[in-house]
Write a structure and sequence with these properties.
- The protein is mainly beta and 132 residues long.
- 11% of the residues lie in helices and 49% in strands.
- The strands form 2 sheets. The protein has a 5-stranded mixed β-sheet with strand order 2-8-7-5-4, with no helix packed on it. It has a 3-stranded antiparallel β-sheet with strand order 1-3-6, with no helix packed on it.
- InterPro entries: Ig-like_fold (IPR013783).
Length: 132
Amino acid sequence: MPMKTIPILFALIGFVLLSCSKEEESVSPLDAYPAPVVQVDAPETASVGENVTVTVYFSVNNGCGEFGSFEATRNGNTITVKVYPHYREGFCTQAFVTREVTYTYKPEEAGTYTFKFWAGEDQYLTKNILVQ
């Protein structure tokens, strides 16, 4: 072997050894992030003390995605809702799928309620419901 190739060979071996890591990178599960809401069907009016039923359509990343939970925060009469999916294990179709779930809210006071459903980064689908 020529003398020029020995340093190159050592440099290559050193690069390969140093670039490999025994630590696994942590990957967040898909259900750690909210699913974007693509459509909301809500009534325009409701009554105090009665459940308001809202149909929410959200997108999941594959055929194993299903509804997991809601995260709702209230600021006055504005309710911001995020949908968190759950991904079951097993064989999944690799297609974006839209799922349907019912969100229920029971207003205790009259007024106009604004429901903001998370649809993506800084984007919301908004529905106003007049409660009498």
